[in-house]
UniProtKB/TrEMBL annotation:
Residue intervals passing through the bilayer: none
Source species taxonomy: Bacteria, Pseudomonadati, Pseudomonadota, Gammaproteobacteria, Enterobacterales
Organism: Escherichia coli
The organism's place on the tree of life at top rank: Bacteria
Entry protein name: Translation initiation factor IF-3
Record family assignment: Belongs to the IF-3 family.
GO molecular function: translation initiation factor activity
Annotated ranges, domain Translation initiation factor 3 C-terminal: 3-57
Keywords: Initiation factor, Protein biosynthesis
InterPro entries, per database record: T_IF-3_C_sf, Translation_initiation_fac_3, Translation_initiation_fac_3_C
Length: 60
């Protein structure tokens, strides 16, 4: 089972607009809703990165 990890890395002034990064991760989560579930979603920024881990949905 492969668990993709999505990492957003902020550079320079991008650190002042972290809410845009959160919007991007939410959009990815919504787009992949049928295929995967979010295993870990960032509640805060870790250094200069936001990390989200996905897991595939179980087959029926």
């Amino acid at each position: 089972m492969i668990k993709p990890k999505i990492t957003l890395r902020f550079r320079g002034r991008e650190m002042a607009h972290q809410q845009i990064g959160m919007e991007v991760l939410n959009r990815v989560k919504d787009d992949l809703q049928e295929l995967a579930v979010v295993e870990s979603f960032p509640t805060k920024i870790e250094g200069r990165q936001m990390i989200m881990v996905l897991a595939p949905k179980k087959k029926q």
